[in-house]
Prior knowledge:
Elements: H1 5-41, E1 45-46, H2 48-55, H3 59-66, E2 81-82, H4 83-92, H5 94-100, H6 107-115
Antiparallel strand pairs: 1-2
Amino acid sequence: MNLSIEELKAELLKAELIDMFQQAYKQGVEDCRESMKFEHSLPPVLRKEHVAQIFQVELPTVEKIVRMNGFPKCHAVTARYPRDQVLKWKDENAMYMNERLGIYVTHQESLRLLRA
Length: 116
């Protein structure tokens, strides 16, 4: 079977792309596992220190975050926040966080920080 140089180049490119996509998929799965591991290691009811970890900020900034409109709070106990609702709020309000405080990091950046 004789292949031209152009056909060989195309096959090589195809093989390289397949390998690159497989590596990207595996990295995405691993990133998701790390994120889920971190999120589920948190207690169901968060303190301000946990909120600081989630948003990668200092405690004074947490005060600003928890005062934002719609930020989930536990009504039975003061200064406690429901983990799942906080994580959902974070995902839904990324642009709002950027506009209001300029502190929110992207999901990819938070994963990088977790690895460090």
